[in-house]
Write a structure and sequence with these properties.
Helix content: 10-25%
Mean pLDDT: 94
Distance between the termini: 9 Å
CATH superfamily: Zinc/RING finger domain, C3HC4 (zinc finger)
Radius of gyration: 12 Å
Order of helices and strands: HEEHEEE
Strand order of the largest sheet: 2-1-3-4-5
Shape: globular
Number of helices: 2
CATH architecture: 2-Layer Sandwich
CATH class: Alpha Beta
Amino acid sequence: MTSVGIDPHVAAIRRVVPRTNGCEDCLTLGTPWVHLRLCLTCGHVGCCDSSPMRHARAHAHSIGHPIVQSLERGENWRWCYVHENYV
């Protein structure tokens, strides 16, 4: 976080549409997921850290897209993988 409390990675947020209805990588591999996260830079849908494969985190670190939003019903939060904090 910066001294004023605004994460500088919010600049990476774009208007995106989920590319799939499930974790893209789990669908390809045939593996299960627990919850879904939407990359706010490119629309990649990945599984959460409670899922066996943690594809949302892997995408953030390998591609460099820092912020995801929960795709779970009733949840409206965003997470920065770089700062490990809500934005």
